[in-house]
Structures are given as C-alpha cells and as structure tokens.
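Why does residue order matter? Because the sequence determines the fold. Keep that principle in mind as you read this record.
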Amino acid sequence: MQNAQNNAKRWWALAAVCIAIFMALLDVTVVNVALPTIQKSFNDTFDQLQWIVNAYTLMYAISLLLISKLGDIFGRKLMFILCLSLFTVGSLAGSMAPNDSLLILFRGIQGIGGSGMMSLSMSIVATMFQGRERGLALGIWSSIAGLSTASGPLVGGLLVQYFSWRAIFLVNVPIGIIAIIMSILFIIKSNHTEHVKIDWIGMVVSTLMVFCFIFGLIQKENHANYDWTNWHVASLLLAGVLLLVFFIWIEHKLISPMIDLSIFSSTSFIGTCIAAFVLGGGMYAFYTYLTVLMQNYMGYTALQTGFRQMLISSFSLVLGPITGSLTNRIRPRYLITGALLLMGGGMLSALLNLGYSSTWTVLILSFILFGLGNALINPPISSTAIESVESRHIGMASGVVNVFRQGGTSFGVVILGIMLTNTFNSKVTSGLSHIHNLPETAKTGLQKGLFAAGPFSGNAIINSPQAKQLHQIPGLFGQVKTAVFHAYYQGMNSVIATSLIMFSIAAILCFILISIKPHNQA
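Structure:
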C-alpha cells in the first residue's frame, strides 16, 4: 500500500515539474508575439523592446549553473520551490509593470526563476525515477519542454488578441500557485550535502563567465553594424575566455569544486553537450527567423503562424513519452544521431523547396522532420547526460547540459542573424540596382532605411508612408517589393544552409563520441 502511494506521489510530482518547465520555456518565446503591443503601450524604441526579451535570456543563462549547484548543496526540492515562487512573483509584477524599465527588471527576475525550474527539474525527475520508469518520465518531461518552446507564438497570439499583453504574464500566477502547492506536497526531498564546503569563487567566476559570453553575443545581435573585433563585443568574449581558463584552473585546485571537471572525461557526456548546443543553435534559434518569415513575408497572423507551427510541437507531445521508453531499448547514440539527421533533412527540404512567393505548405515536410527530430532527441539527451556521470553529479550535469542548450540558442540567434543580414543587404543592393526606373535618391533612401531597420522590417519599410513615392510610377512598387522579398528569402536560404551544416557536423561527432553503454550501466 505504501509503495503504491509513493508511486502515485512520484507521478504527481512529475506533473508539478512539467507545469513549471512549461511556463519557464513558454516565456522564452511567448513575449515575442506581444512586442508590437508592448511597444505601443510604452512607446518603446527597438533597443528597449529587445531588452524585454534579452533580460530574460541573460538572467536565465547565467543562473543555470549557480542554481544547479545550490540545489545539490541545500536540496533540489527547496531550491525548485523557491525558483518557482520567484518566477510566479516576477510574472505578477510584470503583469502590473507601469513602464518598460520595470518590465525589463521583472523579466530578469522571471529568468532567474525559470532557469532554476529548468535545471533542477531534470535532476529531480532523474532521482525520483529509476530504470524503465526514468526513461518514460524523462520522455514526458522532454515532450512538455518541446511543446512549450514551439507553442509560444500560438499561446501569445491568443492571449494578446483576446485579452492584452499583460495576460501573458498574469496567466502564470494561478498556474504557478498550483505548481507550488503540488511541488510542496509531492516532490520527494532529495539528500543534500551540508558538510561540503561551498566553492564561492567557482560560483562567482562561472556566473561572470557565462554572463560575458551571453552578453557579448547579445551585443553582437543587437548591433548588426558591430564587427566581432568591436570592443563592445570582443572585450566581453575575451573576458569570457579568460574567465573560463581561470575557472578550469581553480576548479582543479579545490577539494570541493563547484563543478567536478571529471564529468567531461565521459565522451558520452561531451556528445550530449554538443547535441544540446546544436539543438539550441540550429533549431530553437531558427524558430525566430521562421516566425518572422511566416508573419512578415508570407503574411500570416501570429495566430495563424502559431497554429501552423503546432505541426512541429505536436510530435514532441505525442512521441516524447514513447521516445523516453525507447531509450531503454535503443542505444542513445543512434537516437541522438538519427534525430540530428532528421532535423538536418528538414533543413535540406526547406533549402530545396523554399522560394519567393512560397506559402507555408512548401515547409510541411520540413515541419514534420523538425517535429520528429525534436521529439526523438530531447529524452536521450537528458537520460544519456545523467547516466554518463556518477549519481552525485546528476544535478550539475543537468545544469551544464542546459547551459549548452541555452548558449547554443544565443549563439545560433547571432550566427543565423549575421547570415541573414549579410545576404539580405547584399541582395537588396543588387536587386535595387537592377530597377532602372527607380530614382537614385529613392534608391539611396530605401537602402539606408532597409539596412538600418534590418531584414525583419523589410516589408514594413517598403509599405511605410516614407515610401509612398514608389506608387507614383506604374509598376515600381511591385519591382521594389519583389527585390526586397527575394532578398529575405535568399537570406533565409543562408540561414537554413547554416543550420544544415551544424546538424550534419553534430550528427557525425555524436555518433563518434556517445558510447554504446552509459557510465552507470558500464
């Protein structure tokens, strides 16, 4: 009878964890849909809007390792509930923010809470379940994670259209309270190591290191005119490298380091980190540019875009638990490599079929392959990372893998953005130069406007009041629109080709690095 009660308690605890990570990951993408409404509400500049997104991303990334370690020291259940409470309070405050500055602050608070919920949830699930049940539980966890990432545009579109932008934060409050109560009642208290000396130096250095890397990438993303050698970017990235070297040195010297670097002696663990990094950089970062393509150039509304992208996330919801069970039967090397190849195949299909004036239907095969790959890869990444290290390192292994996934997303947004912008600017220049009846002054003004606004706003620029002279010459507007649209679609082809290369390289590396048997089963 007691065993049955404990078994039911574990599954209720899994439900609480899944509710929490759904909120945490949903908030990474859901705000994007609401940005135009927030801009009107606060009369924000583009830089201020970017920081509403970046504040969450930055604080989320720099808190992952720190909170993972605090969970190992003070107990994962305690830290998980504290982070869940912090996220809920941040959501409530964000829904009432009177100006953009406070909203940015509250988004940062949300990011800290969200990072703890994400990093601790995987280790909580891993310690509550064993054997085949662990694979199934991690599969369910992964399916919810995949669903939340892809359903942000849909959920955000519904809330903004039928309520207001404040609803995207307010809806987290009752859900968060329910998750807190369930967590208190059902999550099993983990053993923690109070006797271990806390590595304060490692905590500070690792946090500063991640901050420098992520903030450097954000600087590059926010300022397309900055080269990598620009001191705003280069100084931060160089500081991140120096801090990384110092962190490795200091961790080798300590008896109780923040991260036992021996976890990287497992090639399987390194393989899962590579897979997580490329999943973030090649797929999750790609969602940003895919959403803009569908909304700003194909002409779909946020709701229409969200519904169509549900084709991707539906596979995660359905296949996640099945894939989790398969991790006990199929070697993770094959699952992870196969998933990377499926997503690479989706990119190849998009590269071959996407063209100017295409509708979303040309991407259906790609969406299916993306969905299958995303559904197949998350459970084995989680289970392999955990089983590739000693049980005492499960919490930190979870945090490290999540840092690689989030770092990959930030890296991907920047790299894919550079590929898009460079191709877009080049093709705009060549496209406008071939329009012979376009006055030189108008051509110069259009180029400046398009380059300054960036590829995302190409359609908005040519339809702005300042471009009304294009309608005065018959056929001119159509020629300019064709040139701008061609430039964006060709830029998207560069983005897709870059993601394809990333998936191909990662598939080869993961097949080589991920061993046949995990550490705990060797």
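Residues 18 and 141 are 6 Å apart (CA to CA).
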